[in-house]
Structure formats: C-alpha cells, structure tokens
Specification:
Elements: H1 10-30, H2 32-46, H3 51-55, H4 64-70, H5 76-87, E1 102-106, E2 110-114, H6 116-134, E3 144-147, E4 155-156, E5 162-164, H7 166-171, H8 174-177, H9 191-194, H10 199-212, E6 217-224, H11 225-248, H12 258-265, H13 272-282, H14 290-294, E7 300-304, H15 313-320, E8 325-326, E9 329-331, E10 336-339, E11 352-354, E12 360-368, E13 373-375, E14 384-385, E15 394-400, E16 408-420, E17 423-431, E18 434-436, E19 443-444, H16 445-455, E20 464-474, E21 481-490, H17 498-511, H18 514-521, E22 530-534, H19 538-548, H20 565-572, E23 575-580
Parallel strand pairs: 1-5, 3-6, 6-7, 7-8, 21-22
Antiparallel strand pairs: 1-2, 4-5, 9-10, 10-11, 11-17, 12-13, 12-14, 12-15, 15-16, 16-17, 18-19, 20-21, 22-23
Helix pairs in contact: 1-6, 10-11, 11-13, 16-17
Protein name: Auxin responsive GH3 protein family
Organism: Vigna unguiculata (Cowpea)
InterPro entries: GH3, GH3_C, GH3_M
Length: about 600
Amino acid sequence: MPEAPRDSHIEHDLAEKNREILNFIEDVTANADEVQKRVLSEILSRNANVEYLRRHGLNGQTDRDTFKNLLPVITYEDVQPDINRIANGDTSPILTSKPITEFLTRGERKLMPTIEEELGRRCMLYSLLMPIMSQFVPDLEKGKGMYLMFIKCESKTPGGIVARPVLTSYYKSPYFRDRPYDPYTNYTSPNETVLCPDSYQSMYSQLLCGLCQNKEVLRVGAIFASGFIRAIRFLEKHWTLLCNDIRTGTVNPLISDTSVREAVMRILKPDSKLADMIHRECSKGCWQGIITRLWPNTKYVDVIVTGTMAQYIPTLDYYSNGLPLVCTMYASSECYFGVNLNPLCKPTQVSYTLIPTMCYYEFLPVNRTLSRPSPTSLNHTQLLELADVKLGQEYELVVTTHAGLYRYRVGDILRVTGFKNKAPQFSFVCRKNVALSIDSDKTDEVELQNAMKNAVTHLVPFDAHVSEYTSYADTTTIPGHYVLYWELSLNGSTPIPPSVYEDCCLTIEESLNSVYRQGRVSDKSIGPLEIKIVEQGTFDKLMDYAISLGASINQYKAPRCVKFAPMVELLNSRVTSNYFSPKCPKWVPGHKQWIHCN
C-alpha cells in the first residue's frame, strides 16, 4: 500500500483538487448538449473507417442527423456477430479503430468490448465521488474506508482476449494496484486481500484487517447491498476465529495464500483489548447496530440499494443502526454513466446525474403497464437527446460508447427526476425483462420457463404436472434465494416422494445461467432454490386479489414473478409443503457459454 506523504500542504492540495472536480461537474452539466455533440463527433471521427460504420453508410460524417438516420438502434443480438468475430481473433477494425483489449462480461452470454483508454475514463468517474461526498460529510480524508472488494474468475475467448467482470478488470489494473497515495482511496484492505481469488480467504482477511483498524474506519461498504450483508453474515459465523487472530497477532492457518498472510501480518498486532471488545459485542446474540458497535466512527454505508438491491434496505438499517445508505454512482459493463450529487438522500430518492463526457446518450420513451415497461413503437430518428428529456417521463437508456457500441440499448429503464444545470437527473426504475435477482444474477421469464420445462419431467412418472407457478426472490434469508410456488394437478394415486421435488429444485438450478450457478457454488451469494407447493385454487385467489386492485379479468395472466408483499403473503399462507435443492448445481470456473463463438 502506498505511504501517506508528510506534506503539510496536503489538506490545501486536497481542497484545491476537490474544487477543480466540482467545477468540472458544473461545466459539463451547464453545457450538456454542446459536450454531447462533441463526444459524438469525436467517437465518429476516430472510428470513421471501421467496418460497422461503413456498413451503414456513414462515410465519415459526424453530425447527429446523419448518424440518427443511418444507424439503427440495436440490442446485443444485433452486434453479437461482430463481437464474436473479434472474440475469435479477427483484429481488423470492425467496431473501433483502436484494438479491443478485453471484454467485460455482462451476465452469462454478453461480452462488452472495451479499449485501453476506457479504463481511464471509468477511473475519472470514480475521482468525482469523494469530492461530492466531502461536501456532505467532512474530514473523510482523516480516516479509512472498509470496502469489501472481490475479484471473480476470468476467461479467454478463442482469440485470446481476456473476458472478465468490469470490477475485476479495474482491481487488476495498474489504476488500482499501483495507485499513488490518496486519502480518498485509503482502504483497510491491502491489495493482496482484494486480489485473492479464493472468496473465503479474501473475505476473512479483509474483515480481519477492517477489525484491526476499526477506530480508523469512517465509511464502510461493498458494491452491492447483498455483498455487504453477506460479509456481516460471514462475520456472524467466523467472529471467534477473527477474535483469536487479533488476540494472538497470528493469522488462522485456513488462510493459506502466502501473499495474503504477509499483507495481513504487516497490519495485525496482538491486541487483547480489541479482541475483548469484539467478543463482547458479537456474543450478545443481538446483532442490531453491529456496524456502529464494531466500527464506532462510521459515518455511512456505501452500497448500491437501488433497483433489485432495494429489497435489502431493512436488513442494512438493522445492522447499521440507521446509518445513511449511500449510492454514489450509476454504471454498467457497457459504460460508466453518472453520479449521485445528493448522496445523503433517502435510498428511495436516489437520482443520478449523467456525466455528458462518458458517452453519447439517447433516450427511448417507455410506456408503463401494470406488469412491465415497454418501449413505444421504435422510430430510430425520434430518440431524445440528453438535453431534451422531460421531467417525470421514463426512458430506456441507449448509448454510443468510445469502445465500439453504437446506439446500443442498455436495457435500463430510467425516470427523469430533475436537472443539474442542463443535464437531467434520473432515478433507476428497473432492468428490462429481469424476473429474479438476488446478487449479480439476472434471471428473466424465458430462462425461468425453460428451467421449469426441464424440471417438471421428474413429475411425469407420477402422472402429475404443474398447473400454475410463480416465483419470488426471497431476501429474508442470508444469503437470499429463489422461491418457486407450484400449484399441482395430481392425476395419479402414487404419492410423490420429497426426493423428487428436491430433484426438481436441482434441475432448475442446473438449467439457470452460469452467473447464478457461480453465485451458488463459488461466491456463496445465493442460497439453495426452494419449491413451495400451494393448495389447489391458490392462483385463482391470486387472480381475485389482482382484480380487486384494478386488473382486467380479460387481460389477466398469472405473474411469473411476484414482489408485492400482500401477494407473497397470500401465497405463503397456502403453502402445504416445501423443498430445497439438496446440493449445489454444477459450475466450472472460466466456462462460459458465450465462448462458443460461431
């Protein structure tokens, strides 16, 4: 870890740097439309001769109107053939004039192209976060952040290009590994503990270092709320071992990674007083407020609690004694987008200001129905610019990136909540087509239906079938898990053994994507899938309830996923039996279905 400089002017320099960054935000938001024109022109000029743009007849033109008239709005499936060519080793300028240096994985099947300079652009957005935060919480530079950061497995495409999650890319880059001292990136976790590929050793050693430096910690966090709660759960299970390490000044033999042990030993010193305090707090039984009890100087919890992560807010409030839950930025594998300029707002009021330099933004108006959002009829020339969106309206985000995506539908639905100067601010509404999500997994209705089709074959010998079903992402357990509610039609006389339902659970899990299975097997971020058998007539009751709320009886379809608490309560009140997956599904590190590039 870099050492803190002894410069007496550090506070002055930091204040000056913060002012420059805040001025940058003022400038680009005040001139949002002009900046967007420039960004699009730069992207199109640089890539004037790439195959994709020539294919659509752009011929070096860089103006908005020509761009909108000639280039289609696309999804991943539209650009996948080009991405597959690059993944298979084609080095010609297909999407960008600069070489694709790696792919950032989104879900199981999507490879997002990126170029070397894009990492610097993402780091620039990171650099905005703490100057914003320091306006609301002073003196953060005087302590450390206990951020739980983890890498995930990576693969290589047939052409030899690395494919990995965006955060793994960042943590393994020189921007993170070789960063100079900065009080805002001064973390309790040594780099070696973050870069450890073993999730158990990484979690254990990061928590150990965080506890050792508990008085210095001013902020705690992880990327997703689910990951932070998983860390607290880990602490509940292993605090006695961690206590012993602190008491003796030694590292548990279970931590076998030499570089991790050495990094931890540079921090760890015998401290019986601290060990006594941890033992006293953790052995009380009640873990309410455990964050402020173990890390008493913590000002806030930095985690994503928007979208599907909102389901974890009550649990975080319980563990943190109501500390502010801060969502600082909005990003995806395709591109990093924006920042929260009011970070101490309530989680339900989080809005992100899109930074106009990050990419070229367009917005597809969305119609909302009771069940799901759907874009209006798509006219490629009628998407709105960043500066033209309307307050209160919802849009699907469409981006043109520096790294080779042109008019690409990200799949995020956003609502305009206000403006920072001339740049709009958006709340995140939902991810399009996602039915279930616990952590980084995203399961849609089609995938769930296919998994169901595979599972119900186990019922055929008993002359039984599933007459109706729905699903629920249950986060009342730690880790959370998928629940399927089945209403059965039983025509045979032979009782169905519990083992058959358990086989159904496992078959569903093995039919789901590798991101889900990695969460089950490696990350331990998802619990065993559960099937709950409900009484006959339960789904009629569910329909009656929906109709009582205003649903049309003519258009009603049983929802394939439920989130509304009264509906979940209705289903749970009619459960006759339940079954869990008996073991983890198969998952092989590095094996991805998207590697099969044709």
